[in-house]
Amino acid sequence: MNPKDIIIATLDANRQELIAAVCCALQNYGNSRYAVIAFEQHQDREEALLQAFLTGLKQPDHDAYLAYVVKNARQRSGEGYALEEVQQALIYFEEAVWKTLVENIPCNLQLVDLLALCTRIFTRGRDCLAQIYLQESIAIRSELDDLHDKFYKYLHHAETTPSEEGPVSNS
Amino acid sequence: MAVPIRTDPAVKSPPGDDTAETYTQAPVNLDTLFVYGSLNDDHFFRLITGTTLPGQSACLPNHRRVHPERGFAFAIPWKGDRIDGRLLTHVTPALLAKLDEYESVGTLYTREVVQVMVEEQAVPAYVYIPLAEALRPYLEKGFAERDRIEEYVERTVQRYLEAKADRCLLADGNRLALDVTRELLSEEIQGLLMQYFLDDGLPPFILKHEIEKANLPSLTWLETDRKAQAYASNYLELGVKFMVFNQLETRFRNAFRGHAKIADKMYQHTLSALMALKLMTDSQSALKNAMIQLKVNRHQPDFKYPDYAVAAIFIAEELYQTGKAQETADWVRDNHLDGLSPLGAELEFSPLGVRAVSAREGEDPLFDSFYYFYDFDLMRRGWKLGAHVDDHGFSAAQQQRSRGFLELAFGRYRLLGDVSKPATQSPWILAKLIDLAVRMVDLRPHSLHISIEVDADAPFKRLDHPEFFLCLLLLGGDLREDPGGKLREMRVFHQEILHPDMGIYLSRLNRHHQNPKDNSWQAVVEYQFPRLYYDYDYQPLILALKGFQKHANPYPFKDCQACPDQEIHKEMEIALKQWAAFPAPLAEQTLNQFLQVVCAGLETEAALAGARYRHYVTDQMQIIERQLKRRNQRIVDYHLRARLPQPTL
Lengths: 171, 649
Prior knowledge:
The complex is a heterodimer.
Chain A: H1 3-13, H2 15-27, H3 39-58, H4 63-79, H5 83-104, H6 109-143, H7 145-160
Helix pairs in contact in A: 2-3, 2-5, 3-4, 4-6, 5-6
Chain B: E1 33-35, H1 42-49, E2 55-66, E3 74-88, H2 93-102, E4 109-118, E5 121-130, H3 132-141, H4 145-168, H5 175-184, H6 186-198, H7 204-213, H8 226-229, H9 232-255, H10 257-260, H11 270-282, H12 284-293, H13 305-319, H14 322-335, E6 343-349, H15 378-381, E7 387-390, E8 405-409, E9 412-414, E10 419-420, H16 427-441, E11 445-453, H17 468-476, E12 479-481, E13 487-489, H18 490-493, E14 498-499, E15 503-504, E16 507-512, E17 522-527, H19 539-551, H20 566-581, H21 588-609, H22 611-641
Antiparallel strand pairs in B: 1-3, 2-3, 4-5, 6-8, 6-11, 7-8, 9-10, 11-17, 12-13, 14-15, 16-17
Helix pairs in contact in B: 4-5, 4-7, 5-13, 9-11, 9-13, 11-14, 11-16, 12-13, 19-21, 19-22, 21-22
């Protein structure tokens, strides 16, 4: 059996446990947004991620997985998730994949090869994630240049024409 | 009885063919006014002038009254047509001056002299005729009578605000100073507007006095409060978000009056608030970056409070783009679908979760459990969303420092005495408000209370199937595995809705007053068990609660003194606690019976709410069923995975 097929068959056979493990990890992920997302929402997302990974595994450039990561990165960045939050969510998924493979495939050189293959794909996914976050941030900042100038012009004006501040309302 | 009217020979007779000759050019001095629109309503007339005048039926020939569906009535020359209205007498020059100001004579209306017919006698009178082109923007925005009066009062208030802005803020006396003053006093301005309508008008000196005495916030106290300084960045960041939201909400409200209009008995800011939240959260990343760029996401010792307001105004200007705003307003209009039950919601946030109300000093590293909320003036910043600190002990009502949750209460515009209006009758609107508010605040969401106004004529009933409460908990609670891998329903298991003396607050009976003077109240059943999630669609839960309440109409768990089921409730509480600690799958039959009850309740409502709503309910029922059964299956899966025996209730 080809190594990719072994991974696919193993993950497919343990799909439900794998997804449940990732969802539980995300729901217990400290003070992140993931911790306050409903279980079923996680389930749907992780199903889609696993499917993208399995499809990508069959492709020479793993396009399906990378496309999913890019789309996900854009969406999460737009929603205000921190990069490290999304990275950690991917790490939970990667860990669950590794764990499933290690628990279900005899420990030998073939397993090492399989894990190395997965790692290569995961690494490319994480690189994509970071790149998207950087691109989005640069794009937004350049759009906001005028805003920055306007506000600092105002601050300069306020410094040179001091105002009386109003009565204090705080007790 | 007819009022004596004098005739005036200086005025022409009603025109013939040429409507351009409709109005006299001769200088006249009349004490009669023909009214046909909002001025023909004594209530509105009193709001504008502080008085009412005697009058009698009259008609204006060769004019047509136009009243757009979402707008106010106005007159246009129209040969052969006529407008029925009233002729008011004893109109003094002072009164005319007020009315001229209200009608923006010269820019929006002209005051013309016409002859009106009173009992077949031609009588000269003034009438307000619009300048068609000037009126167009108002009609496009959907301004109605009340909006115009609000605008009139706001213009009056603005004069006093300008005076205050000149004295207190920014020193440069420009538009920005006025905008900042208006932002910082927006709660007071809203209070005055509300009072104006409740009292049939307020004298100008009261408006002036209230604006004069309103405090502007300051940060000077912070210089000497080292403990508060540790949390200042988080409070100020939240304050700026509230101010950006306020600015956007005002822009939407002004630009899309028609789209943002809601029934009088509802909270008037609901739809514009939803639009603002949508725009803000769609631009979440830009908002975050803008705050970082302007350094208003943290405490800057050299910034004064108004500087943060200026930043918020600039950011809102940046985010508000006409095309995007139009899309957002259309999105609300297209999805807004009213049921019959007025609804409300309260959202609690805390980085500490359930420990928020008993937190020690410094336990919450971000906000110290909102201990300095009022010092940073955040109640006034967040008033449009009903922001306050809920310490579950009511000291928040007096705006004293206390530790607790940040709570948003849509529609609550006065904390003391629960003075509030329902947010909406649309489950879609309420669900979107909840989701977008959670995204905007971006703090750890904790719990959600959903309120449903109940029919006072429909008495509560004993629930034949107490296990239906488990169905509700399954649908809206928080089923999750704890760090030890044990599946729990956390809202009950963690005692989050358990009062030490009173028991479990699954639901309670509440009373809401619509205004402070109102002795009457509306009964509201408030469901307190739902978990507040991030990125979650609450429509199915809202509809399930509505359907359940409508059909089963069970006694609320708490605060219902007439409830004969208190002993049964106590037994049910024990069952709920046991189930929450070790959730067992519910029997298929129980789920189906529960769904039938929900469906029956929703169908009763849908039968009266129109075909579109009926389709919506049918779709949502399918989602409710899917969600409920999926969650039940999760319990089954958990037991299989953990190799536990399969108990069933």
